[in-house]
Amino acid sequence: MFIGIGETPLAVGEKAPDFTLTSAEGEIISLHQFAGKKAFLFFFRGTWCPNCTNHMHEINNELATLTNLGVQVLGICCQGLAPMMSFFKKEKLSFPILSDEDRKTAKAYGVYAYLSWDSINIARPSFFYIDEQGIIRYRYIGEHQWDRPNLEDLKKLIS
Prior knowledge:
The protein has 159 residues and is α+β, with helices and mostly antiparallel strands. The protein has a single domain (32-158), classed as Glutaredoxin (3-Layer(aba) Sandwich), CATH 3.40.30. The protein is built from five helices and ten strands; from the N terminus they run ββββααβαβαββββα. The strands form two sheets. Strands 3-2-6-5-4-9-10 form a seven-stranded mixed sheet. The longest helix is centred in the middle third of the chain and has 12 residues, at 50-61. It is globular, with a radius of gyration of 14 Å. Mean pLDDT is 86; it is low at 1-5.
């Protein structure tokens, strides 16, 4: 399991905490906006992380399939809005990437890592599948920066 100083992740069956964050496009987005819908919530280390960038593009490539399955995809990074806006324009992603600069959302979901062998003061690569009632039905917490959920497995959760 993850080794480091951080939070304890939320468990499957728990209610997903609401949040209100600003997207890289300047839009204010809250989880409660998607009540009655399924959501995939991805926490990324940051837009500076090449592994995260690759994962964001992998998700972007599957976005049409996920959307057709009735899923809202949201990405969250523990960094400031300005670099995220620049990254978003450059990378041309089609799903919202949200700024969690104060790390409150990462802490609420229990994926904030104060210190580990490959990170400091950022979110662990993590994923939560939230059902229409706002309940966490699946979670994946990466043990290190290369550890990501397989999108094919995630699509099976909802199909």
